[in-house]
Fold:
Amino acid sequence: MSMTQTLPLIPKNIAIVPAAGIGARMAAGIPKQYLTLGAQSILGHTLDALLSHPQIAQVIVALHPQDDMFTALPQAKHPKLITVIGGGERADSVLAALAVAPEDAWALVHDAARPCLTHGDIDKLLASTKAFPQGAILATPVRDTMKRSDANGVIHHTVDRALLWHALTPQYFPVETLLKYLSDALKADVFITDEASAMEWAGIAPGLISGRADNIKVTHPDDLQLAELFMAHLSETPLDK
Structure:
């Protein structure tokens, strides 16, 4: 009797990069994703990590309508990359990208200003669909003692850190469900901070995949210096670690 081996279905993966923000907290005069980090921009490093991954079929970048800097990036002409016009908030930009994404794909939504992403972390997230078919996010366990303050800026109490995580990106969900729940949450005036929060609002509990602590988001000037150190280290090691 012959037996036919059934191979697991591998989802089609696309990446979404919301890059319509202006990064006011950096006070840099230009959107933070275009600040120089080593030999190129922060956004350039971010796009390189995504475009070079063999299991990512397409990268969709959501841009500010007045963005006049993106086309100067070397990555702008990459055959795997397309752009859309983003919105005033992150969720609006993600929705704009989801609207042109294949409905049967899975979306890796990644911050434009997280340039230290490795293929190793992407691989772990892509492999999570068996354990977490509802979707998952990269995260790191909280290491420091956590304090909750009162309105006057003094300690109210210490928070148990045992089950606390720092949410990172990429965040990985089926395009069809993320599009629905993100759209529904915005229509209901729900405050959405990331894609996982939209899924949580819909009653879905995403999985947590432990990622690298150096996958930082450049938000403040000090972060840029730290990212430079991390990028210098990553340049000496394979991207897939």
Observations:
- Helices lie at 42-51, 90-98, 119-126, 175-187, 195-201, 221-234.
- The mean pLDDT is 90.
- Residues 13-234 form a domain with the Spore Coat Polysaccharide Biosynthesis Protein SpsA; Chain A fold (CATH 3.90.550.10).
- The radius of gyration is 19 Å.
